[in-house]
Amino acid sequence: MSHALQCHVTLLSMRELESRLPRTFATRSARALGVHPRDLYRWRDSGQIVELSRGVFRRTDAPAATFPDLLAVAHRVPGGIVCCLSAAATQDLTDELPASVQIAVPRSSRAPQIDYPPTSAFRFDPGTFELGLSRLEAAPDEWVRVYEPARTVVDLMRLRNRWGDAVAYSALQRYLRLPTARPAVLLDYAEKLGVYGPLRAALDVASAG
Q1: Any idea where the domains of the chain sit in the sequence?
Q2: pLDDT confidence of residue 10
Q3: Which of 22, 36, 79, 118 is the most exposed place for a label (fewest CB within 10 A)?
Q4: CA-CA distance, 148 to 133, in Å (whole number)?
Q5: pTM for the predicted model, two decimal places
């Protein structure tokens, strides 16, 4: 291949990258646009994109992502919802740093196996799966599904045997200090998720203090 033709191929690939692909994308999305996998790995090796997770890439000309691991997992598991400690950490409800990205998937679905970033999947009841669903801006104009703070607190309460009472009670206290705190919503979620008694008791103690 001549030098001129080589330059033409490189420029064509760069234009293709800039005009056709979103800032973060999966291999399947790129292939749907006619991009061959070998082009993806050539762009990766040349530093035009970075691989956030297996088969998930981000353009290096994109703004920095605030939560790149959450963004990567969201592309690996589009129907998943960021939950528990991962959600609490983004909402300033805990100082705990989760060792893995924690996502919820419907109990009827297969739990995803993701090595990087380390990911833990929780299988939740399909009937209440999207209860308290919200979204988080993981990168400028790029959003991931996440449970809102009230649902996060209730999940930490009902799974407190996993991380300890202190984590759940601390999250509850931090939530109640938020200007947007809605204790009635906490109780509604707790009733629907089968943890009304413990949440009611904890709420009474927190309110008395």
Answers
A1: 3-59, 68-208
A2: 42
A3: 36
A4: 6
A5: 0.88
pLDDT exceeds 90 at position 171 = yes
Q: Which two tokens stand for residue 50?
A: 């970075």
| Burial of 119 from C-beta contacts in 10 A (0-12 / 13-18 / 19+) | buried
User: pLDDT at residue 32 above 60?
Assistant: yes
Q: Do residues 144 and 136 lie in contact, with contact meaning Cβ atoms separated by under 8 Å?
A: yes
How far is residue 86 from each of residues 23, 48, 96, 156, measured CA to CA in Å?
23, 29, 9, 11
> In which order are the strands placed within the sheet that holds 24-26?
24-26, 56-59, 49-53
* Confidence grade of residue 12 (pLDDT, cut at 50, 70, 90): very low
Taking every pair of Cα atoms in the chain, the longest distance, rounded to a whole number of angstroms, is: 79
Residue 87 has pLDDT above 50, yes or no: yes
